[in-house]
Write a structure and sequence with these properties.
With 151 residues, the protein is mostly helical. The chain has 7 helices and no strands. It has one domain. The longest helix is centred in the last third of the chain and has 18 residues.
Length: 151
Amino acid sequence: MKILKIIAWIALIAFAIIQLFPTDKNESYATPETDFMLVNKVSSKIESQLKVSCYDCHSNNTAYPWYSKIQPAAWFLDDHIKEGKAELNFNEWNNYSNRRKKSKLRSIIKQIESGEMPMDSYTLIHKDAIFSKEEKETVLNYIKTLKDDLE
C-alpha cells in the first residue's frame, strides 16, 4: 500500500510540474488579405461551415477549449494545430501558387469525401464540426468549382 501512495504522489507532483510548461497560443484576431474566405468571396453558409470544421487547425486563429490550459492536453492540441497549419493554412491561401492551390483543393476534396477531415479526434468534442450530408455536398461542390476554375 505504501508503494501506491509513493507512486500517486510522484504522479501528482509530475502533473503539477508539467503545468509550468505552457504552449504558445495560435491566436490572431486580424484576418489577412490572403485569407481563403476573402480571396474567394465565399458565401456566408460555406464560410460558416469551413470556420467551424476547419479553421481551428488550419488558420492562424484557434478557438481553444477549456482543456487547452491543462498539460499534456495542450501539447497534444499544439502539435495537431502545427501539423494542420503546415499542411494547409487558410489564412495564407493567396500566398500559394496556383499549382499548390489546385493540389490543396484536390486534397481537401479527397479528405472530406473519405471522412478523414475533420479528424475524429476533433469531432469527438466538437460535434458541430461534423458535416451533415447536405453540408458535405455543398462544401465539396464549392471546392470542386474552385479547383475547376484554376485549371
